[in-house]
Amino acid sequence: MTTFNSVGLPKWLCESLSSMKITTPTNIQKACIPEILKGRDCIGGAKTGSGKTIAFAGPMLAKWSEDPCGIFGVVLTPTRELAMQIADQFAALGSGVNLKCSLIIGGESMIEQANKIKENPHFVVATPGRLAHIIMEHPDDVRGLRRVKFLVLDEADRLLTDSFTDHLTTCFEALPHPSKRQTLLFTATVTDSVRSLKEKPVAEGRQPVFVHELDKVDDVVIPKSLNLSFLLTPFLVKEATLHNILINEDFKDSTAIVFVNRSENAEILRRVLRHLEIRVTSLHSEMPQSERTNSLHRFRAGAARVLVATDLASRGLDIPTVELVINFDIPRDPDDFIHRVGRTARAGRAGDALSFITPNDLSRILAIEERIDRKMEEYKKVTDNGLIKNSLKIASKAKIEAKMEMEREGFGERKRLQKKRLQDQLGHNVQSSKQKSKKNLNPKSKLKTKV
Predict the structure, then answer these.
(1) In angstroms, rounded to a whole number, what is the distance separating the alpha carbons of residues 71 and 161?
(2) Residue limits of the Helicase C-terminal domain (predicted)?
(3) Which of 107, 179, 223, 242 is the most exposed place for a label (fewest CB within 10 A)?
(4) Helices 238-247 & 393-409, crossing angle to 10 degrees?
C-alpha cells in the first residue's frame, strides 16, 4: 500500500497528516508529490475533493524543513475564504515545527499585513489583489519575496483570466525569475490557458513541466457519488420553490449551500429564509470581511443549516458536512457549475446537487451537460399543491419584507458610490483628453507652444 512516507514525505509530516486522520495519499498526491520533490514545475488537475492542497503543501513543507530560511513559498488563490482555508491547513500541518504562515487578504489592515511580510514568515498565502497593492505601496517591506523557492497558483484556471492579469503581473515581478523557483499550478478544471503553460520553453538545466490531469481510471469531472437533478421553476416562484425544497422530506435536515449569481440576490435570499425561520447565513462581496469570516464559521459549526452564496464559495472550500448544493441561479460558465457542485460529495461521500431551471436557462444547461458528459434527472417531489399550501404565500410576503429592509438599510450604497466615483473619474479623463486634442489641433495653440 502506498503511504505518504513512500512518496517521499518526511516522518514528521507523515505524523502531522496522521494526526489529522489523513493516512493514505490520493491519486493526485501520489502523482505530484514525488515529482515536486525532484524539483519539477507542476500542473495538477483533479476533481474537487481529491486532496490538491496536500499535493502541493506536502512537498513544499518537506523541502522547507531541510532549509527553513526566509519566505520559502507563496500561495496565490482567487478568494479570501479559500486563502484562509489554505493558511489554516498549512498551520495545522506545521503545528509541531513552529511554522509561520501569513495570511494576506483584503478587508484587513494593509500596514499590518506589510509588516507581517517584512518579518519574513515561512509561507505567505494571499489573494493577488491585496499582495499586489502591498508590493506597490510598501516595496521596502516585501524584499523577502525575492528569495521565494515556490510559487503556487491554486484554482489556476480562475487566476489565469483577464480579471487577475494586472495583479498577477505585479506579484510575479516581485518574485524570483521562474528559472530560480518552482511553479505549481493546481485546479479542478484544466483549461487551455493552464495547459498551454507546459508548452513554454524549458530553461537550461530544468526538467519539463510535470502534468497530471484527471485520473485515467475515473476520467470524469463529477464524482459518481453525486446525484445531479433539475427542477423546472417559473422565475416568480423561485423563492417559494427553494423554501419547499428545504422543508420537504428529502432535504429537511440537510446542510445546504444555495448558489446565486449576484450579491443582491444572496442578500435577498438570506433575509427571505430568515423570515421563514430557516437557520441561514450568507457569503458575498458586499459583506465586510469580518462578517464573511463569521458567516463561514457559523456554517461550519452548524449554527446555520443553509449558506446562501455567490461564487465566492464555489472554489476549493472544504466543508465536509455539506449534503446538498442548490443552483438557485444557473452559472454562465459550465466550469463554475463543476466547482459549485463540488462543494458536496467530496472524498467519496454522497451528495445531491439540484438546479433551478427557468425558460431562459436552457442553453446554459445544455452547455453544462455537454461539459460534464452527464444528463441531469428531473426532481419531481415539489408539486403545485404543496407549493401553494406550504410556501407560496409566506415566501412572497418574506421577499417583500426583505426588499423593504434592504432599501431602508441602503444595501449596495457603498458599491454604487464606488461605481459613480469611477464613472466621474473616467468622464473627467475623457474630457481632459478631448480638451488636449482640441488644443493640439488649434494652430494658435501650436504657435504659442513653439514660442
Answers:
(1) 27
(2) 241-387
(3) 179
(4) 110
Alpha helices in 263-353 (DSSP H): 263-275, 289-301, 334-341
C-alpha cell at 100: 509561520
- Burial (CB count within 10 angstroms: exposed 0-12, middle 13-18, buried 19+), residue 354: buried
Burial 147-160 (b: 16+ CB within 10 A, else e): ebbbbbbbbbbbbb
Q: pTM of the entire structure? A: 0.83
Written as one string, the DSSP assignment of 1-36 is ---TTTTT--HHHHHHHHHTT--S--HHHHHHHHHH
CA angle (317, 124, 129) in 5-degree steps: 75
Residue from 95, 137, 99, 144 nearest 119 by CA: 144
Separation of alpha carbons 50 and 441, rounded Å: 63
What are the residues whose beta carbons fall under 8 Å from the beta carbon of 310, sequence distance 6 or more?
Answer: 259, 260, 261, 262, 263, 266, 283, 284, 285
Percent of the chain with pLDDT over 90: 73
SS (H, E, C) 382-408: CCHHHHHHHHHHHHHHHHHHHHHHHHH
How far, in Å, CA of 363 to CA of 369, rounded?
A: 10
Under DSSP, is residue 230 helix (H, G, I), strand (E, B) or coil?
Answer: strand
The answer, yes or no, to whether residue 177 has pLDDT greater than 70, is yes
Predicted confidence at residue 192, as pLDDT, reads 75
* Integer Cα distance of 61 and 322 in angstroms: 29
Matching residue, cell 515545527: 97
Q: Are 329 and 261 in contact (CB under 8 A)?
A: yes
Domains of the chain: 11-198+205-218 (3.40.50.300), 226-406 (3.40.50.300)
